[in-house]
Amino acid sequence: MSFASLGLSEEIVRAVSERGYTEPTPIQAQAIPAVLSGGDLLAGAQTGTGKTAGFTLPILHRLSDKSIKGPSEGRPPVRALILTPTRELAAQVEESVREYGKYLKLNSMVMFGGVNINPQIARLRSRVDILVATPGRLLDHIGQRTLNLSQVEILVLDEADRMLDMGFIRDIKKILALLPKKRQNLLFSATFSDEIKILADNLLDNPAMIEVARRNATAELISQKIYLVDREKKRDLLAHLIKQHDWHQVLVFTRTKHGANRLAEQLDKGGIPALAIHGNKSQSARTKALKEFKDGSLQVLVATDIAARGIDIIELPHVVNYELPNVPEDYVHRIGRTGRAGSEGEAISLVCVDEHKLLKDIERVTKRELPKEIVPGFEPDLNAKPEPILNGQNRGQRQGHGRNPLRGANGNQAQPRTGQKPATAGGNRGASHRSGGRHR
Ligand code: AMP
């Protein structure tokens, strides 16, 4: 199947071929005709499936199609609004819009918080056909009356599950109230919780429904292992594991940008080539790190969750959670990056006493107890006291962290406690807000 056969214009097909795509991915093959038809869409797809082109290509086509009547009077208005949960994703999506639309006369803009609002206000004075935004900053502009959404024809909620997890539902509702009633709505989500279903029911009118398999739905293909270790010995253990097993192409996750930088520097000094990528790195530094990682010259890439999302590195042999994520679903996203076609991938987590509640949450979400091991020479101190994880989200939310699942361990094999009350659902979810700790 070709992109042209899906009904996309020659200009779009040209841009796509120059990008090097020869065939649509399954989500694109289904989403493109559905969006071109003008109807609403509910799509189950996560990063890595090609979902971005799945909605940007047909949006570009519709907005540039002269036979579809656009607004006739006054300054050209914003006609498509794409909402994303994070700055990084917004930037990537807008980059795609620009690239795929390079032969069209459409203008796009990206808008997110954490940066000076004035250049955005200035940019809004000129033409913006397609706006890619995070909800918080978008509402700031509405408050300042620098943005008018009354003529939006197409709305996309990208990674809607993530937006709800991040507590954006009220912002989304406020934004929906500013849009014209008659419009096309596209909702993309990797998971379908009850909350997402309610949102979809309220938002979508008789939507086409498509779903593509998760990249690695079968967590069974991924061998998962927990190494229990003291917080201070994590770095040495990681270096030991990499050297002992001669691992190449290891993607390591940390919780913070600072942690990513520090770890990459320390590994590198210790003779293991490593670089960090996160939101504070320039695009050229990120591109360089990724290129080296992909071509095998860089052994270790240290990333934060958000930096790794949407980046095209999948099917890795080794993923290491240097620190467990605050949100259990992030664990699933992280380990979904491993597993090469046919052969098993390996996901390792280094877990210290501070993280036992996070681990319980992950086991509850993944519905499996993860095997725990201790590496000789790196035995954790059974009397170690948990410390709060100092990261916006967690402060003041920590309950039940005092339990040490190592107590009662026999020999070297740690035995997780049984009969322990499961952690309450969604301990960290919804706790963050638009200026919260999610902007790592
Ligand atoms: P996404 O799921 O939209 O984040 O895309 C994941 C990756 O797949 C990105 O690096 C895209 O550049 C790439 N991609 C998207 N569509 C195609 C395609 N039809 N053929 C090959 N690669 C693609």
Explain how this protein is built.
The chain has 440 residues and is of the alpha/beta class. It folds into 2 domains: 4-211, Rossmann fold (3-Layer(aba) Sandwich), CATH 3.40.50; 219-440, P-loop containing nucleotide triphosphate hydrolases (Rossmann fold), CATH 3.40.50.300. The protein has 15 helices and 14 strands. The chain has helices spanning 10-18, 26-36, 51-64, 87-100, 118-124, 135-143, 160-165, 169-176, 194-203, 234-245, 257-269, 283-294, 305-308, 328-335, 356-366; strands at 41-44, 80-83, 108-111, 130-133, 154-157, 184-189, 208-211, 222-228, 250-253, 274-277, 300-303, 318-321, 345-351, 372-373. The strands form 2 sheets. The chain has a 7-stranded parallel sheet, sandwiched between helices. Helix 12 links the parallel strand 10 (274-277) and strand 11. The longest helix is centred in the first third of the chain and has 14 residues, at 51-64. It binds adenosine monophosphate. The site of adenosine monophosphate (AMP) has 14 residues, from helix 3.
